[in-house]
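Sequence only, no structure available. Ideas?
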Amino acid sequence: MNASAPVWANPQMTAIDLIVDHPEFGPIPFTADPDDVEAHGRDLYARAVAGDFGPIGAYEPPAPPPPVVPAEISRRQCAAEMFARALISGPEAVAMTTTATPPGLVEAMLAALPEPEQTFARIDFGASVYARENPLLNALMIGTGASQADIDAFFIAAAAR
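Reply:
I predicted one. Tokens follow.
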């Protein structure tokens, strides 16, 4: 059996990942181990170590999973993240958290909305949690120049606070 692309499968260098030319299925991934219960696994490992399939590449740990964007954050988390990003002052963050008072940046956006949208927006702002999919929230953040990726990053960072 022939193989190619050997790479250490773990940091201990006790197993090797290969692409094996299988007679029935064609090229398939395979992890060769010196203690494999099957003779072909032990043989492929020995041949890979001997250099039959070329040099063995370095182990590369799997990439971490992408962060999960939370469905919602609390008003406190939002205020803390806005303060951390220097979008609002400390007193504005405290007022936003304790009394749902919109900081200047948000107030200007809310005041520019026509009625009844303005009132609905103020109701949404006063909620104790902010949903990532809230159209008003998205519109306000996009109005500051944020992209959808920026909004996701904001929610991820805020949720960690």
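Residues 34 and 42 are 5 Å apart (CA to CA).
Hope that gets you unstuck.
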